[in-house]
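Issue 218. Parser rejects a valid record. Input:
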Amino acid sequence: MIHKNAKRRSVAVLLGAAMAVPMTASGAGFSLVEQGVRGLGYAYAGSAAIGDDASTIYFNPAAMTRLEGREMTGGFSLIDLRGDFTKESATDAIGQPISGGEGGNIGDGASAIPNIYYHHPINETTHFGIGIGVPFGLATDYEDDSIFRYQARRSEVGIVNINPSIAWKANDHWSVGVGFNVQYMQVELSNAVDFGAVCFSQVDPTTCSALGLTPQNADGSAVISGSGVGYGYNIGVLGEGERTRVGIHYRSQVKHDLTGDARFEGRPAIFEDPNAEHNPFDNSRVDAGFRAPWTASLSIAHELSDRMTLLGDFSYMGWSSFDELRVEYRNPAQPDTVERQNYSDDVRYALGMNFDYNDRWIFRAGIAYDESPVSTDYRTARLPDDDRIWFSFGGTYRPSANNEIDFAFTHLMLDDEIYLDHTGSQGDRIVGTYEVSANIVGLQWRYLFN
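Output the parser choked on:
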């Protein structure tokens, strides 16, 4: 038999799985700034103005006019995110302590963020390039039997961006560039379902206890997955003086319409009605939407001497468009649900330097401050998000005239105590603090064609 409120409870469970989308990676929200290893070495300061390799296709296509010949650049950034939680309290839907540990290291080990670029000058004033990278993504993992199991187990989110671009040099001082973006987004999220708590809430404790359906003793699972393709553009301008360059770059918002599946395991018989065409907790197709935020950047590169270049950057990210998460279920027994997000626009500041030591070696360093779009009131257990400071250094080694190897290291410093007080969709509440840090190692190869 199905009780009338079970339908609403099933919607809340699915939404709990879907809530992984708005979490942090190494950048604000779950953005990934790591679109080139050279930039990582100076904390991406001046990225829209420096134009020192083909990764400028992503940061400002106008700066392709500074590249002299054909080149292929490819590499990866390895992000090692670590987070430990200290519990103050953890209670289930009826106020009883939740069993289990504190989740372990939620960072899911190291994740590699790849990118590859190709640049080709068409003539003296026109340049073509194409880049492929991952501008958004995360992977987090709580232990299956932890206190977080009803809010989050595993979360995987990734967006692959393909970005063909063209640049035109108007004169010795001005260049413009434009790019087209095709993005593929994929999401897979999971959590446990406390069918005992659902039964207590929607049926009655006496009936449920007689069936062995008591809170924390009748767990099932929910997995939601989806994918979709979105389209956008980016446009940039580069102004060049004798020793100073200024770059302005805008990357548009990209709308993703996601389609996928919601899958349940362990549903008790009390939630099944053989006479009904659709039941709560039926496996179902789902639809959702996400808008990847727009970004605007202002960068400067000033050649202090023939060897030393100073770099600066100010970036603004339009996360405020992400005010809610709406999930639509094709199972008519599960009505649409909406969860408020209330993300805020955020800013990023960066300062850095390039030092040409000799014909074979270049050294870099940088520092950045990266705001989070998530307030304490909307922080969730999928991954704690907070403001962060970047400390970066790196370099380039030229073993030959056609080959360059770039390397970089960044340490991300977050608040020592990131506070969490979150009530999940199944009524469980977790209170405590996270300690989170991340290290990034980048390696890249640049080949210059003859």
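Fixed in the parser; the record now loads. The radius of gyration is 25 Å.
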